[in-house]
Amino acid sequence: MFTGIEILHYAHGTIKQQLPLTNGVAQGTRMRWHSNGVMESIGSYSNGMRTGYWRTWNSDGGKNKEGTFVKGKPEGEQIFWHTNGLKSVIWHFSSGHPNGLMRSFYDNGRKKQEGVYTNNLKHGKWQNWNKTGQLNKIAEFQMGKLIKELSHKNIKLNITSVYNSSQTKKF
To answer: Cα separation of 76 and 26, whole Å?
Structure first.
């Protein structure tokens, strides 16, 4: 088994990857580049599994993804970006599965969706917005099962009814 640094190159000669190996198993910081020489990713391995903080970039150098890994699985906050540099998704993982708040965004920066995962299942209130920022859907989940859903039209009616009933009670 090989122990040392494995270095791979693209056909045109630029470096593609640098990976430390111990007895043939990835161990240490791996660096990878796009064919144009721009850094593609950097992160560490321990006993052949991703560990610690990992970052990836697009071929133009813009951020792509970042987050922490434990024993090869995503852990904690994971962030993804659109190619225009604005955040696409921010979510939380536990033991490799979504667990906690998830927020996604359109490429114009406006919020697209927000909700919570509990043990890899949608749970509680989830909201969706359109590209202009208008709320267009609210859904309620109970451990992955859809309990109720209101569309844009129903949301307006429901909000109006609540407003009218609260106005009536006040006067």
So the answer is: 23
| Whether the model pTM is above 0.70 | yes
List, as one string, the DSSP characters of 73-140.
EEEEEEEEE-TTSSEEEEEEEETTEEEEEEEEE-TTS-EEEEEEEETTEEEEEEEEE-TTS-EEEEEE
Sign of CA dihedral 17, 18, 24, 25: negative
Statement: residue 45 has pLDDT above 90:
yes
The average confidence (pLDDT) of the chain is: 92
Query: Considering Cα of 163, then 151, then 115, then 122, what sign does the dihedral take?
Result: positive
For β-strands 25-26 and 15-22, DSSP reports them as antiparallel
Give 52-103 pLDDT, tens digit per residue: 999 999 999 999 999 999 999 999 999 999 999 999 999 999 999 999 999 9
Distance CA 117, CA 149 (A): 17
CA distances from 170 to 163, 165, 167 (A): 11, 9, 5
DSSP state at residue 165: H
Which candidate, 117, 113, 87, 112, places its Cα nearest to that of 101?
117
| Cβ contact 32:16 at 8 Å | yes
